[in-house]
From TrEMBL, chain A:
GO cellular component: plasma membrane
Subcellular location: Cell membrane
Keyword Membrane: yes
Transmembrane segments annotated in the record for this chain: 32-54, 102-124, 136-158, 215-240, 260-282
PANTHER family per the UniProt record, alphabetical: D,D-DIPEPTIDE TRANSPORT SYSTEM PERMEASE PROTEIN DDPC-RELATED, OLIGOPEPTIDE TRANSPORT SYSTEM PERMEASE PROTEIN APPC
Protein name: ABC transporter permease
Chain ranges of the ABC transmembrane type-1 domain: 94-283
Domain of life: Bacteria
Automatic annotation (TrEMBL), chain B:
Keywords for this protein: ATP-binding, Nucleotide-binding, Transport
Gene3D superfamilies noted in UniProt: P-loop containing nucleotide triphosphate hydrolases
SUPFAM superfamilies cross-referenced by the UniProt entry: P-loop containing nucleoside triphosphate hydrolases (SSF52540)
Family to which this protein belongs: Belongs to the ABC transporter superfamily.
Domain of life: Bacteria
Nucleotide-binding listed as a keyword: yes
Classification via InterPro entries: AAA+_ATPase (IPR003593), ABC_transp_ATP-bind (IPR050319), ABC_transporter-like_ATP-bd (IPR003439), Oligopep_ABC_C (IPR013563), P-loop_NTPase (IPR027417)
Listed Pfam families: ABC_tran, oligo_HPY
SMART domains attached to this UniProt entry: AAA
The protein, known as: ATP-binding cassette domain-containing protein
């Protein structure tokens, strides 16, 4: 009897699908999310292979003869008031904008998720200490905070990354913490403890996967804000140091010319827009793909 | 007499509240024999679930002892307790809340074995998961499904399979069937009884459903406000209930017959008294029709009235 049952089971045995595969399976159903992913990959390829597309000299080369040339076959995106090739600046700018935007989000995401999860999971004194620290960080406006850090550490791309991450971390910590608190009384957490699961495994295996939705939404929103904050920092001279091209910097540098040469602000604006849209699409797709309940 | 599998000695669990200590479990002495089922019944909020969780140390008891084969597990350190957990498992009440919604069925069942590293080989683990699914009557095609795609009965089977994964000796069943409809209840109960016959588990079966407890238990403990008021074998308890609370409880079982439709019931008067800083003496006294002035005297331990029939009431001396 059992033999028959077993042989039947073997015949219809279904291959266990790995988690990553099933996430990808659900992700690719969302056409917009796939489009966002392709867009971001293209942007990354451009950023990585910038030296192959245009040499760096073109970015900083100034020429009074070639000021304010409108987009043409020779200068695809035109030139700015110093006669620098806008195409080269946009291509090279992708390096700074993307690495700063994505980098700071990844740092604050990891840090925020860990600290927030620890704070919410353990509660008590650990929680109070962490949250008061975060309150201190939150009390200072993001831009002011970034200004302080850059002013203290000095101007530079890496310091800017630190500044941007530090000023976005508190938001992540709060979101993760509140989600963890609402989850930690759940019976499946208790079930995990009943078979001796350690705290760390409970946090990353049972708690974090269940709070991923709000985190990703927050991350994609913050991503767009970060690029804009960097540009406003650049405007007051604390962002990416000139003449290094960064989309936000280019945008604010050319603000004065917006009325007569609109392409100077439109093109970097479109570049920022594309990267932010790509990020948002990916974020939406990921959130849905990671939640098995939304599978249709 | 051999040492029982699980024994609680003066187990207490108090919760601190702004108004004072909430006596959720107060001085409970129970015994679970090997291969037997102890049913724990009582109304909502009488500390049944807290008792089960305290025995497993999911809640740290305030005082008392939990003896596993004669050894006090409350004295175990973290590492020893981790080993210990393989021997004791729990099945939860709500199969909708007790399964992680982000994990597939096979992951949920494999998780305890991964954590305790009882099986490390991947292929072996998959085989064991399949075997467990067979044991609890879950079709193999559900390995990749998520809990929310399954109905309550199947979900509870996952819960049972997860509890069995570590091959424990003792399982606390915290109202495992109360969230299910009646036909599924019977399936799960019979499954659990079959598994007991096969593997010789001991159950502590927590429920408020008297027909369920009658069906599955060999012994029954009746709880009222954190205390154990009567312990007896199932047959003895149902035929000869001694404690006034037990009598009222059994009297409340509806009888599905027209003959009894006009039957007068004794209804317990009043409300459950607050479990926060309770007065000494019998906690049921304020609602008991036999209450006397001696009922407030602090002595309220279980006394053996008949053979293996314990009751804590001054009516029986």
């Amino acid at each position: 009897m059992t033999d028959i049952a077993n042989s039947k089971v073997n015949k219809v045995e279904i291959k266990k699908r790995s988690q990553l595969k099933s996430v990808w399976f659900r992700y690719k159903k969302n056409k917009m999310a796939v489009a966002g992913l392709i867009l971001l990959i293209i942007l990354f390829i451009i950023a990585v292979s910038a030296p192959l597309i245009v040499p760096y000299e073109k970015v900083v080369e100034q020429s009074m003869k070639h000021r304010f040339i409108k987009p043409s076959s020779e200068y695809w995106f035109g030139t700015d008031e110093y006669g620098r090739d806008m195409f080269a600046r946009i291509i090279w700018g992708a390096r700074y904008s993307l690495s700063l935007g994505v980098g700071s989000i990844i740092i604050s995401l990891i840090f925020g998720a860990l600290v927030g999860a620890v704070s919410g999971y353990y509660g008590g004194r650990i929680d109070s200490t962490i949250m008061r620290l975060m309150d201190v960080l939150l009390a200072i406006p993001q831009t002011l905070m970034a200004i302080c850090i850059v002013a203290a550490l000095g101007q530079g791309v890496f310091n800017l990354l630190v500044a941007m991450s530090a000023s976005t971390v508190p938001k992540f910590v709060r979101i993760v913490r509140s989600s963890v608190i609402s989850l930690k009384g759940e019976e499946y957490i208790e079930a995990a403890r009943a078979c001796g699961t350690g705290d760390f495994r409970i946090i990353y295996k049972h708690v974090l996967p269940n709070v991923i939705g709000p985190i990703i939404v927050q991350a994609t929103i913050t991503m767009a804000l970060t690029v804009l904050t960097i540009s406003s920092l650049s405007f007051i001279g604390l962002g990416v140091p000139t003449p290094q091209p960064e989309w936000g910097t280019i945008l604010s540098d050319n603000k004065a010319q917006m009325r007569y040469y609109p392409y100077l602000t439109t093109i970097p604006g479109i570049a920022i827009l594309i990267s932010v849209i790509a990020m948002n699409l990916i974020g939406d797709g990921l959130r849905d793909a990671l939640d098995p309940k939304l599978k249709n | 007499m051999s040492t029982p599998l699980i024994q609680t000695v003066g187990l207490k669990k108090y919760f601190k509240t702004p108004k004072g200590d909430l006596h959720a479990v107060d001085d409970v002495n129970l015994t679970v024999e090997r291969g037997k089922t102890l049913g724990v019944v009582g109304e909502s909020g009488c500390g049944k679930s807290t008792l089960g969780r305290s025995i497993l140390r999911l809640l740290e008891p305030t005082s008392g002892q939990v003896l596993y084969k004669g050894e006090d597990i409350l004295k175990y350190d973290k590492l020893k307790m981790h080993e210990m957990r393989k021997n004791m498992q729990i099945i939860f009440q709500d199969p909708y809340a007790s399964l992680n919604p982000r994990m597939t069925v096979s992951e949920i069942i494999a998780e305890p074995m991964r954590v305790c590293k009882t099986i490390t080989d991947k292929k072996e683990l998959d085989d064991k998961v399949n075997e467990l699914m067979n044991t609890v009557g879950l079709a193999n095609r559900f390995v990749n499904t998520y809990p929310h795609e399954l109905d309550g009965g199947r979900r509870q089977r996952i819960g049972v399979a997860r509890a069995l994964a570590l091959e424990p000796e003792f399982i606390v069943c915290d109202e495992p069937v109360s969230a299910l409809d009646v036909s599924i209840q019977a399936q799960i109960l019979n499954l659990m009884m079959d598994l007991q016959d096969e593997h010789g588990f001991s159950y502590m079966f927590i429920t408020h459903d008297l027909s369920v407890v009658k069906h599955i238990s060999t012994e029954i403990a009746v709880m009222y406000l954190g205390q154990c008021v009567e312990v007896a074998s199932t047959k003895e308890l149902f035929s000869n209930p001694l404690h006034p609370y037990t009598q009222a409880l059994l009297d409340a079982i509806p009888i599905p017959s027209l003959k009894y439709r006009n039957k007068k019931r004794t209804v317990i008067k009043g409300e459950v008294t607050s479990p926060i800083n309770p007065k000494p003496g019998c906690r049921f006294a304020s609602r008991c029709k036999y209450a006397k002035s001696e009922c407030v005297s602090p002595d309220r331990s279980l006394k053996e009235v008949n053979a293996n029939h314990f009751v804590s009431c001054i009516l029986y001396k």
